[in-house]
């Protein structure tokens, strides 16, 4: 059972696409920290809300383990890890609390430029490279398509050229990376953006009020930005 705490701890990406916008959002919500930029822990000054700077992939697990209370992470990462926990028979103890309006991208199926795309049925029996096996598996199952999933942790877009896979399922924003690898997106299986993630069950100590205050302020900032 989670320890009783009177400070709220938020995990954000240490360095990457979501780190600056996450910090900017929290700063706009009135948070400030005593910190040096490269430190892993930032002590909250204006409110008892601390930051932990981590790899984005670690954020759902940190919430699940109760090391952090909230996190700012891509919906793609949160949903993938929820699927992974479900597949392992573990309870999914985190969920999306708010969509934050930055870090937008799609998890898309992309095929070689030369393919004459006719629809999902064309994927049957193909090898699909991805870093999102759980999201892809769920989507394939829903479409009743049997295909082989090739799990790669990086450079997914070169897999077809290397002969490791026939096509890919990867994150896309501008599409330039796909184009540079002679691939074209044909359908989106998830629309993603940065989200505030938190536990499924409410806090029972001082963190409840802190989280409520933070949400109220964040909602105010997000409304103005709209
Ligand atoms: O070190 P750490 O593990 O924390 O960082 P990371 O390298 O895993 O994550 P990072 O910073 O690359 O991405 C963090 C999050 O940003 C992702 O989980 C997504 O939610 C979101 N995001 C938004 C993206 C993109 N847009 C995106 N374009 N994540 C990755 N990409 C990739 C894309 O797959 C392609 O390879 O960026 C490349 C450029 O994309 P195009 O389409 O503009 O060419
Ligand atoms: Zn990562």
TrEMBL record:
GO molecular-function terms, A-Z: ATP binding; ATP phosphoribosyltransferase activity; magnesium ion binding
Function recorded in the entry: Catalyzes the condensation of ATP and 5-phosphoribose 1-diphosphate to form N'-(5'-phosphoribosyl)-ATP (PR-ATP). Has a crucial role in the pathway because the rate of histidine biosynthesis seems to be controlled primarily by regulation of HisG enzymatic activity.
Obligatory cofactor(s): Mg(2+)
Record-listed E.C. numbers: 2.4.2.17
Residue span relative to the full protein: 6 to 231 of 304
Family statement: Belongs to the ATP phosphoribosyltransferase family. Long subfamily.
Top-level taxon of the source organism: Bacteria
Gene: hisG
Keyword Ubl conjugation carried by entry: no
Biological processes, Gene Ontology terms: L-histidine biosynthetic process
Protein name from the UniProt record: ATP phosphoribosyltransferase
């Amino acid at each position: 059972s989670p320890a009783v705490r009177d400070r709220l701890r938020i995990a954000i990406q240490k360095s990457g696409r979501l780190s600056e916008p996450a910090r900017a959002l929290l700063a706009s919500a009135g948070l400030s920290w005593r910190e040096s930029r490269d430190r892993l822990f930032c002590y909250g000054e204006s409110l008892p809300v601390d930051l932990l700077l981590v790899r984005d992939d670690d954020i759902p697990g940190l919430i699940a383990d109760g090391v952090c209370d909230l996190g700012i992470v891509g919906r793609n990462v949160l949903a993938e890890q929820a699927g992974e926990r479900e597949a392992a028979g573990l309870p999914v103890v985190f969920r999306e609390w708010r969509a934050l309006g930055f870090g937008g991208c799609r998890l898309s199926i992309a095929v070689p430029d030369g393919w004459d795309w006719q629809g999902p049925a064309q994927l049957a029996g193909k090898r699909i490279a991805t870093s999102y096996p759980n999201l892809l598996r769920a989507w394939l199952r829903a479409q009743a398509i049997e295909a082989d999933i090739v799990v790669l942790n990086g450079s997914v877009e070169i897999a077809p050229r290397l002969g490791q896979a026939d096509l890919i399922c990867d994150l896309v924003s501008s599409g330039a990376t796909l184009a540079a690898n002679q691939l074209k997106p044909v359908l989106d299986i998830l629309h993603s953006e940065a989200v505030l993630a938190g536990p499924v069950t409410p806090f029972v100590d001082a963190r409840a009020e802190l989280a409520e205050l933070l949400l109220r302020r964040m909602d105010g900032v997000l409304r103005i930005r709209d």
